[in-house]
Amino acid sequence: xxxxELLSFLTPETRxxxxxxxxxxxxxxxxxxxxLLHLLTNPDLLVAVSSLTSDPSNAIAKECYLILINASADxxxxxxxxxxxxxxxxxxxxxxxxxxxxxxxxxTILSNLTRHRPTCNPVSKxxxxxxxxxxxxxxxxxxxxxxxxxxxxYLGPLLSNLSQLPDxxxxxxxxxxxxxxxxxxxxSYEASATRRGGVIATIRNCCLDHACHDWMLGDDxxxxxxxxxxxxxxxxxxxxxxxxxxxxxxxxxxxxAREQDPDIRKLLLETLLLLTATKPGRQTLKKNNVYPIxxxxxxxxxxxxxxxxxxxxxxxxxxDEPEEGMENLLEVEVPEExxxxxxxxxxxxxxxxxxxxxxxxxxxxxxxxxxxxxRS
Length: 376
Prior knowledge:
- With 376 residues, this protein is mainly alpha-helical.
- Helices cover 60% and strands 0% of the residues.
- The protein contains 22 helices and no strands.
- The longest helix is centred in the C-terminal third of the chain and has 24 residues, at 336-359.
- The radius of gyration is 23 Å and the shape is elongated.
- The relative contact order is 0.08.
Protein backbone atom coordinates (compact mmCIF):
# COMPACT_ATOMS: atom_id res chain seq x y z
CA UNK A 1 0.00 0.00 0.00
CA UNK A 2 1.25 3.49 -0.85
CA UNK A 3 2.60 5.25 2.26
CA UNK A 4 0.91 8.60 1.53
CA GLU A 5 -2.40 6.87 0.91
CA LEU A 6 -2.03 4.87 4.11
CA LEU A 7 -1.22 7.99 6.11
CA SER A 8 -4.37 9.65 4.78
CA PHE A 9 -6.38 6.83 6.39
CA LEU A 10 -4.61 7.17 9.77
CA THR A 11 -6.20 10.42 10.87
CA PRO A 12 -8.76 11.10 13.61
CA GLU A 13 -11.25 12.37 11.01
CA THR A 14 -11.18 9.21 8.89
CA ARG A 15 -14.22 6.92 9.00
CA UNK A 16 -13.77 4.21 11.68
CA UNK A 17 -14.11 1.33 9.21
CA UNK A 18 -11.41 2.79 6.95
CA UNK A 19 -9.13 3.50 9.92
CA UNK A 20 -9.70 -0.06 11.09
CA UNK A 21 -8.59 -1.51 7.77
CA UNK A 22 -5.45 0.66 7.87
CA UNK A 23 -4.48 -0.27 11.43
CA UNK A 24 -5.22 -3.93 10.71
CA UNK A 25 -2.88 -3.78 7.73
CA UNK A 26 -0.13 -2.15 9.82
CA UNK A 27 -0.56 -4.70 12.59
CA UNK A 28 0.12 -7.47 10.12
CA UNK A 29 3.03 -5.49 8.70
CA UNK A 30 4.61 -5.07 12.14
CA UNK A 31 4.62 -8.82 12.72
CA UNK A 32 7.62 -9.54 10.50
CA UNK A 33 11.13 -8.21 9.88
CA UNK A 34 10.39 -6.82 6.44
CA UNK A 35 7.39 -4.94 7.78
CA LEU A 36 9.41 -3.47 10.67
CA LEU A 37 12.06 -2.32 8.20
CA HIS A 38 9.29 -0.61 6.22
CA LEU A 39 8.21 1.21 9.40
CA LEU A 40 11.82 2.21 10.06
CA THR A 41 12.13 3.82 6.63
CA ASN A 42 8.69 5.45 6.94
CA PRO A 43 8.60 6.74 10.54
CA ASP A 44 5.54 8.95 9.88
CA LEU A 45 3.48 5.76 10.01
CA LEU A 46 4.48 5.24 13.65
CA VAL A 47 3.77 8.90 14.40
CA ALA A 48 0.25 8.40 13.05
CA VAL A 49 -0.20 5.13 14.95
CA SER A 50 0.91 6.76 18.19
CA SER A 51 -1.65 9.55 17.75
CA LEU A 52 -4.43 6.99 17.24
CA THR A 53 -3.83 5.26 20.59
CA SER A 54 -6.33 7.82 21.92
CA ASP A 55 -8.90 7.05 19.22
CA PRO A 56 -12.53 6.88 20.43
CA SER A 57 -12.75 3.34 19.04
CA ASN A 58 -11.30 0.90 21.55
CA ALA A 59 -10.67 -1.63 18.78
CA ILE A 60 -8.57 0.84 16.79
CA ALA A 61 -6.72 2.07 19.90
CA LYS A 62 -5.92 -1.51 20.90
CA GLU A 63 -4.54 -2.36 17.46
CA CYS A 64 -2.35 0.76 17.64
CA TYR A 65 -0.94 -0.34 21.00
CA LEU A 66 -0.24 -3.80 19.59
CA ILE A 67 1.59 -2.24 16.65
CA LEU A 68 3.71 -0.24 19.11
CA ILE A 69 4.48 -3.42 21.06
CA ASN A 70 5.79 -5.07 17.91
CA ALA A 71 7.73 -1.97 16.91
CA SER A 72 9.27 -1.58 20.36
CA ALA A 73 10.47 -5.20 20.25
CA ASP A 74 12.92 -4.09 17.53
CA UNK A 75 15.78 -2.03 18.99
CA UNK A 76 16.29 -0.28 15.64
CA UNK A 77 12.92 1.43 16.05
CA UNK A 78 13.47 2.64 19.61
CA UNK A 79 14.82 6.06 18.67
CA UNK A 80 11.99 6.56 16.18
CA UNK A 81 9.41 5.76 18.83
CA UNK A 82 10.99 7.94 21.51
CA UNK A 83 12.11 10.93 19.46
CA UNK A 84 10.00 11.02 16.29
CA UNK A 85 6.73 9.52 17.49
CA UNK A 86 7.22 10.96 21.01
CA UNK A 87 5.36 8.07 22.61
CA UNK A 88 6.64 8.50 26.18
CA UNK A 89 4.46 11.37 27.51
CA UNK A 90 1.24 9.63 26.50
CA UNK A 91 2.35 6.23 27.77
CA UNK A 92 3.44 7.54 31.16
CA UNK A 93 0.33 9.70 31.53
CA UNK A 94 -1.99 6.69 31.17
CA UNK A 95 0.22 4.19 33.00
CA UNK A 96 -0.96 5.17 36.48
CA UNK A 97 -4.64 5.57 35.60
CA UNK A 98 -6.46 2.73 37.42
CA UNK A 99 -9.33 2.98 34.93
CA UNK A 100 -7.23 2.78 31.75
CA UNK A 101 -7.92 -0.37 29.75
CA UNK A 102 -4.61 -0.65 27.88
CA UNK A 103 -2.19 -0.44 30.80
CA UNK A 104 -0.79 -3.92 30.16
CA UNK A 105 0.10 -2.90 26.62
CA UNK A 106 1.80 0.24 27.95
CA UNK A 107 3.82 -1.83 30.44
CA THR A 108 4.98 -4.10 27.63
CA ILE A 109 6.02 -1.19 25.39
CA LEU A 110 7.93 0.50 28.23
CA SER A 111 9.54 -2.82 29.14
CA ASN A 112 10.76 -3.20 25.56
CA LEU A 113 12.01 0.39 25.33
CA THR A 114 14.02 0.14 28.55
CA ARG A 115 15.90 -3.05 27.67
CA HIS A 116 18.81 -1.03 26.31
CA ARG A 117 20.59 1.97 27.84
CA PRO A 118 20.16 4.36 24.84
CA THR A 119 16.39 4.40 25.39
CA CYS A 120 16.30 3.41 29.08
CA ASN A 121 17.82 6.79 29.93
CA PRO A 122 15.21 8.83 27.98
CA VAL A 123 12.42 6.82 29.61
CA SER A 124 13.94 7.58 33.01
CA LYS A 125 14.10 11.31 32.20
CA UNK A 126 10.52 11.28 30.95
CA UNK A 127 9.44 9.63 34.21
CA UNK A 128 10.95 12.54 36.14
CA UNK A 129 9.17 15.04 33.91
CA UNK A 130 5.85 13.21 34.28
CA UNK A 131 6.43 12.76 38.04
CA UNK A 132 6.33 8.96 37.83
CA UNK A 133 8.70 7.37 40.35
CA UNK A 134 9.95 3.82 40.76
CA UNK A 135 8.35 3.77 44.20
CA UNK A 136 4.98 4.53 42.58
CA UNK A 137 5.47 1.74 40.05
CA UNK A 138 6.26 -0.69 42.87
CA UNK A 139 3.13 0.48 44.68
CA UNK A 140 1.05 -0.29 41.56
CA UNK A 141 2.79 -3.62 41.13
CA UNK A 142 2.11 -4.68 44.72
CA UNK A 143 -1.48 -3.43 44.97
CA UNK A 144 -3.90 -6.22 44.11
CA UNK A 145 -6.63 -4.98 41.81
CA UNK A 146 -4.97 -1.60 41.22
CA UNK A 147 -6.36 -1.77 37.69
CA UNK A 148 -9.11 -4.34 37.29
CA UNK A 149 -8.54 -4.40 33.51
CA UNK A 150 -4.80 -5.12 33.70
CA UNK A 151 -2.58 -7.77 35.27
CA UNK A 152 0.45 -5.42 35.44
CA UNK A 153 2.78 -8.42 35.14
CA TYR A 154 5.05 -6.56 32.72
CA LEU A 155 5.76 -3.95 35.35
CA GLY A 156 8.18 -6.62 36.62
CA PRO A 157 10.49 -6.51 33.57
CA LEU A 158 10.10 -2.72 33.47
CA LEU A 159 11.34 -2.44 37.06
CA SER A 160 14.17 -4.81 36.22
CA ASN A 161 15.26 -2.69 33.28
CA LEU A 162 15.04 0.54 35.26
CA SER A 163 17.18 -1.01 38.01
CA GLN A 164 20.06 -0.91 35.54
CA LEU A 165 20.28 2.80 36.38
CA PRO A 166 21.93 3.82 39.69
CA ASP A 167 19.31 6.47 40.51
CA UNK A 168 16.47 3.97 40.41
CA UNK A 169 18.48 1.37 42.31
CA UNK A 170 19.08 4.02 44.93
CA UNK A 171 15.34 4.45 45.44
CA UNK A 172 14.81 0.70 45.68
CA UNK A 173 17.66 0.32 48.17
CA UNK A 174 16.78 3.30 50.37
CA UNK A 175 16.55 1.81 53.90
CA UNK A 176 13.96 4.42 54.88
CA UNK A 177 11.58 3.36 52.08
CA UNK A 178 12.41 -0.37 51.94
CA UNK A 179 10.94 -0.55 48.44
CA UNK A 180 12.83 -3.72 47.54
CA UNK A 181 11.28 -5.66 50.44
CA UNK A 182 7.80 -5.21 48.96
CA UNK A 183 8.86 -7.15 45.87
CA UNK A 184 10.18 -10.25 47.65
CA UNK A 185 6.86 -12.17 48.02
CA UNK A 186 6.49 -12.18 44.22
CA UNK A 187 9.51 -14.49 43.89
CA SER A 188 7.01 -17.28 44.56
CA TYR A 189 4.09 -15.81 42.60
CA GLU A 190 2.79 -18.87 40.75
CA ALA A 191 0.37 -17.09 38.41
CA SER A 192 3.03 -15.37 36.27
CA ALA A 193 6.60 -16.29 35.34
CA THR A 194 6.93 -12.83 33.81
CA ARG A 195 6.27 -11.22 37.18
CA ARG A 196 8.59 -13.62 39.03
CA GLY A 197 11.33 -13.15 36.48
CA GLY A 198 11.07 -9.37 36.57
CA VAL A 199 11.34 -9.33 40.35
CA ILE A 200 14.37 -11.61 40.60
CA ALA A 201 16.14 -9.67 37.82
CA THR A 202 15.45 -6.46 39.74
CA ILE A 203 16.89 -7.92 42.94
CA ARG A 204 19.92 -9.26 41.08
CA ASN A 205 20.62 -5.82 39.63
CA CYS A 206 20.31 -4.27 43.08
CA CYS A 207 22.83 -6.80 44.41
CA LEU A 208 25.43 -5.33 42.06
CA ASP A 209 25.74 -2.59 44.73
CA HIS A 210 27.74 -4.60 47.25
CA ALA A 211 27.41 -1.87 49.87
CA CYS A 212 23.77 -2.92 50.34
CA HIS A 213 24.47 -6.62 50.93
CA ASP A 214 24.60 -6.46 54.74
CA TRP A 215 21.29 -4.60 54.81
CA MET A 216 19.60 -6.97 52.37
CA LEU A 217 20.81 -10.05 54.25
CA GLY A 218 19.95 -8.53 57.63
CA ASP A 219 16.67 -8.53 59.53
CA ASP A 220 15.32 -5.39 57.81
CA UNK A 221 15.01 -7.14 54.43
CA UNK A 222 16.01 -10.78 55.09
CA UNK A 223 16.27 -11.59 51.39
CA UNK A 224 17.93 -15.01 51.75
CA UNK A 225 14.86 -17.20 52.53
CA UNK A 226 12.97 -15.63 49.61
CA UNK A 227 15.81 -16.49 47.22
CA UNK A 228 16.26 -20.03 48.51
CA UNK A 229 12.64 -21.17 48.74
CA UNK A 230 12.03 -21.36 44.93
CA UNK A 231 15.23 -23.43 44.58
CA UNK A 232 14.33 -25.90 47.34
CA UNK A 233 12.68 -29.22 46.54
CA UNK A 234 11.05 -32.08 48.43
CA UNK A 235 14.27 -33.96 49.16
CA UNK A 236 14.67 -35.12 52.74
CA UNK A 237 17.60 -33.46 54.50
CA UNK A 238 19.24 -34.62 57.69
CA UNK A 239 18.06 -33.14 60.96
CA UNK A 240 21.35 -31.29 61.32
CA UNK A 241 21.03 -29.80 57.84
CA UNK A 242 17.42 -28.75 58.45
CA UNK A 243 18.22 -27.11 61.78
CA UNK A 244 20.91 -25.00 60.11
CA UNK A 245 18.53 -23.56 57.51
CA UNK A 246 16.38 -20.43 57.86
CA UNK A 247 13.06 -21.35 59.52
CA UNK A 248 11.06 -21.03 56.29
CA UNK A 249 13.30 -23.65 54.63
CA UNK A 250 13.15 -26.26 57.39
CA UNK A 251 11.30 -29.58 56.97
CA UNK A 252 9.62 -28.74 53.66
CA UNK A 253 6.69 -30.96 52.61
CA UNK A 254 6.99 -33.91 50.23
CA UNK A 255 5.10 -32.04 47.52
CA UNK A 256 7.36 -28.97 47.58
CA ALA A 257 7.95 -27.93 43.95
CA ARG A 258 10.90 -25.96 42.61
CA GLU A 259 10.72 -22.96 40.32
CA GLN A 260 9.82 -24.42 36.92
CA ASP A 261 11.44 -21.78 34.72
CA PRO A 262 15.17 -22.49 34.21
CA ASP A 263 15.92 -18.86 33.39
CA ILE A 264 14.48 -17.79 36.73
CA ARG A 265 16.38 -20.53 38.58
CA LYS A 266 19.57 -19.24 36.98
CA LEU A 267 18.78 -15.66 38.00
CA LEU A 268 18.19 -16.79 41.58
CA LEU A 269 21.58 -18.54 41.64
CA GLU A 270 23.32 -15.53 40.09
CA THR A 271 21.80 -13.31 42.79
CA LEU A 272 23.04 -15.63 45.54
CA LEU A 273 26.49 -15.62 43.94
CA LEU A 274 26.52 -11.81 43.94
CA LEU A 275 25.70 -11.87 47.66
CA THR A 276 28.86 -13.93 48.24
CA ALA A 277 31.03 -11.16 46.80
CA THR A 278 31.85 -9.82 50.28
CA LYS A 279 33.18 -11.74 53.26
CA PRO A 280 30.14 -10.94 55.47
CA GLY A 281 27.88 -12.17 52.66
CA ARG A 282 29.78 -15.44 52.33
CA GLN A 283 29.66 -15.91 56.07
CA THR A 284 25.90 -15.31 56.15
CA LEU A 285 25.20 -17.85 53.39
CA LYS A 286 27.44 -20.44 55.05
CA LYS A 287 25.90 -19.77 58.47
CA ASN A 288 22.42 -20.31 57.01
CA ASN A 289 23.45 -23.64 55.51
CA VAL A 290 22.75 -22.74 51.89
CA TYR A 291 24.94 -25.55 50.56
CA PRO A 292 22.47 -28.49 51.03
CA ILE A 293 19.76 -26.63 49.10
CA UNK A 294 22.12 -26.00 46.17
CA UNK A 295 23.51 -29.55 46.36
CA UNK A 296 20.05 -31.09 45.97
CA UNK A 297 19.15 -28.61 43.24
CA UNK A 298 22.28 -29.61 41.30
CA UNK A 299 21.37 -33.30 41.57
CA UNK A 300 17.86 -32.56 40.25
CA UNK A 301 18.78 -29.99 37.59
CA UNK A 302 18.59 -30.93 33.89
CA UNK A 303 19.47 -27.55 32.36
CA UNK A 304 23.21 -27.27 31.67
CA UNK A 305 23.47 -23.52 32.22
CA UNK A 306 21.64 -23.73 35.56
CA UNK A 307 23.86 -26.63 36.63
CA UNK A 308 26.91 -24.50 35.82
CA UNK A 309 25.47 -21.66 37.94
CA UNK A 310 25.02 -24.14 40.82
CA UNK A 311 28.65 -25.19 40.51
CA UNK A 312 29.87 -21.59 40.52
CA UNK A 313 28.01 -20.94 43.76
CA UNK A 314 29.14 -24.18 45.40
CA UNK A 315 32.77 -23.36 44.66
CA UNK A 316 32.40 -20.20 46.75
CA UNK A 317 30.40 -21.86 49.52
CA UNK A 318 32.84 -24.72 50.13
CA UNK A 319 36.05 -23.04 48.98
CA ASP A 320 38.69 -21.28 51.02
CA GLU A 321 38.42 -17.58 51.78
CA PRO A 322 40.28 -15.27 49.35
CA GLU A 323 43.61 -13.94 50.52
CA GLU A 324 43.86 -10.61 52.32
CA GLY A 325 43.06 -7.64 50.11
CA MET A 326 40.83 -9.68 47.80
CA GLU A 327 37.89 -10.26 50.15
CA ASN A 328 35.49 -8.24 47.96
CA LEU A 329 35.18 -10.25 44.76
CA LEU A 330 33.39 -7.43 42.94
CA GLU A 331 36.41 -5.15 43.41
CA VAL A 332 39.17 -7.60 42.48
CA GLU A 333 41.19 -6.42 39.48
CA VAL A 334 41.67 -9.29 37.04
CA PRO A 335 44.77 -9.17 34.78
CA GLU A 336 43.89 -8.68 31.11
CA GLU A 337 45.32 -12.03 30.00
CA UNK A 338 43.36 -13.85 32.71
CA UNK A 339 40.19 -11.93 31.85
CA UNK A 340 40.59 -12.91 28.19
CA UNK A 341 41.01 -16.58 29.11
CA UNK A 342 37.91 -16.41 31.31
CA UNK A 343 35.92 -14.81 28.47
CA UNK A 344 37.03 -17.56 26.10
CA UNK A 345 36.09 -20.25 28.61
CA UNK A 346 32.72 -18.59 29.19
CA UNK A 347 32.09 -18.34 25.44
CA UNK A 348 33.00 -22.01 25.01
CA UNK A 349 30.63 -22.96 27.82
CA UNK A 350 27.82 -20.93 26.26
CA UNK A 351 28.39 -22.59 22.88
CA UNK A 352 28.29 -26.03 24.49
CA UNK A 353 25.09 -25.13 26.35
CA UNK A 354 23.56 -23.83 23.11
CA UNK A 355 24.50 -27.04 21.31
CA UNK A 356 22.96 -29.10 24.11
CA UNK A 357 19.75 -27.07 23.93
CA UNK A 358 19.54 -27.55 20.17
CA UNK A 359 20.14 -31.29 20.50
CA UNK A 360 17.36 -31.68 23.06
CA UNK A 361 14.98 -29.63 20.96
CA UNK A 362 14.59 -26.93 23.58
CA UNK A 363 14.41 -23.29 22.64
CA UNK A 364 13.84 -20.98 25.58
CA UNK A 365 13.90 -17.22 25.76
CA UNK A 366 14.38 -15.22 28.91
CA UNK A 367 11.24 -13.84 30.49
CA UNK A 368 13.02 -10.50 30.59
CA UNK A 369 12.60 -10.05 26.83
CA UNK A 370 9.17 -9.35 25.39
CA UNK A 371 9.33 -10.07 21.66
CA UNK A 372 6.05 -8.34 20.91
CA UNK A 373 2.58 -9.43 19.92
CA UNK A 374 3.14 -11.08 16.56
CA ARG A 375 0.13 -11.32 14.31
CA SER A 376 -0.24 -14.75 12.75
